[in-house]
Amino acid sequence: LFERRGRTLKLTPLGREFLPYVERSLAVLTDGVHAVENFHAGKSGRIVVGSLDNMATIMLPDPLERFREIYPAVDITIIVRRFQDVLEGLYDGSGTLGLIGAPLFDKGIKILAHFQEPIYGVVAPEHPLAALHEQQGYVTLSDVTEHTIFRVTLGPRATAFVRGTVEAARGSSGGAVVHVPWMMVIRMIILGQGIAFLPKSVVQ
Fold it and tell me: How far apart are CA 87 and CA 98, in angstroms?
């Protein structure tokens, strides 16, 4: 690759042919070193978040926006999964972070944060329950169970509360229970077709 001329080295014809490949290799190596430095500094990398569908819709947009303002070069993948699939993703390394809506007693998973939200009964402004609340300042369980109740999947405690309300309704009222996915419930409420019990973040 080189010819020695006294104290200097000169590229041979083969050396000149090989030089562009060496330069490209060194450039790639330099890029790799910078990538590692950026990774350790938190400026680049990849995060995979496994989440239940309703939690991804409700809880992730705002923190995701803030995170991207601080770390714009980090790749993010959000995967909607079932509860058990979120845990399996953490165990097999395909997930970085999990967002679930149930108590967790698995000692192999580290819990970083707990979130609690109040649950509100919500209706459209023209719904009879809204007028009753305006008049009395409150509504009773028997008032609620006279109307259609839209059920969506919530955390275990909230789901148990709504189920209990529904069971109480069966004794005396003609109110129906309609199970709907998250993407439908807001529209159904706006149309004035019933009441739903929703977390504060959804109401906002």
Answer: 7
Phi, psi of 203 (to 5 degrees): -60, -45
Output the DSSP codes for 45-93: EEEEEEE-HHHHHHHSHHHHHHHHHH-TTEEEEEEE--HHHHHHHHHHT
Among 121, 118, 117, smallest CA distance to 166 is for 121
Structure tokens at 86: 């979120």
Measured in whole angstroms, how far is the alpha carbon of residue 26 from the centre of its chain? 40
Cβ 75 vs Cβ 85: under 8 Å:
no
Note the pTM of the prediction, 2 decimals: 0.57
pLDDT, one tens digit per residue, over 71-123 is: 888 889 999 888 889 999 999 989 999 998 767 788 888 888 888 778 888 99
- DSSP H helix total and E strand total for the chain: 9, 9
Burial of 189 (0-12, 13-18, 19+ CB in 10 A): buried
Q: How confident is the model at residue 50 (pLDDT cuts 50, 70, 90)?
A: very high
The span from the CA of 164 to the CA of 162, in Å, is 5
Q: How far apart are CA 140 and CA 121, in angstroms?
A: 11
Residue 161 has pLDDT above 90, yes or no: no
For residue 29, is it left (φ>0), alpha (ψ between -120 and 50) or beta?
alpha
Asked if residue 196 lies in contact with residue 149, where contact means CB atoms within 8 angstroms, the answer is: yes
Q: How many whole angstroms separate alpha carbon 163 and alpha carbon 146?
A: 15
